[in-house]
Amino acid sequence: MALVSALAVGIGGAAGAVSRYAVGLAIERRALDTAAVNVAGSFLLGALVALDLPGPAALALGVGFCGAFTTFSSFAVETVRLAEDEGVGAAAANAAGTLAAALVAALAGIALVGVL
Questions:
Q1: What is the CA angle 32-24-80, rounded to 5?
Q2: For residue 67, how far is the Cα from the chain centroid?
């Protein structure tokens, strides 16, 4: 891996992780903050894919920022906790709703940039 590529991913990842933490502090509601970052990150990644940025920029923003900002592991754990605390229905609604919203957001990001 080239040093420039690794630095791009690291810098983007640091910004994404700090941004993810800030959203968690701002929303302060389990599962909702994770859904928000996953949907927003999906929109952003869709837009970035449509922009077809060159190497280091794509790595910094797509792999680094979006990779650190969004979080599948938190989504999985929070969905299991919802099942334990509020029942399978709440967990299923969280899983299906987040997935559907993230897919629509990614498509919207691609479509929006494709129109511009």
A1: 45
A2: 7
Return the DSSP state at 41.
H
H helix or E strand, kind and range, residue 21:
helix 3-27
Instruction: Output the pTM of the full model.
Output: 0.92
Token look-up 């994770």 returns: 34
Vertex 32, ends 27 and 33: CA angle to 5°? Answer: 50
51 contacts 110 by C-beta, under 8 angstroms: no
Q: What is the pLDDT of residues 24-44, one digit of tens each?
A: 999 988 889 999 999 999 999
CA 96 – CA 101 distance, rounded (Å): 8
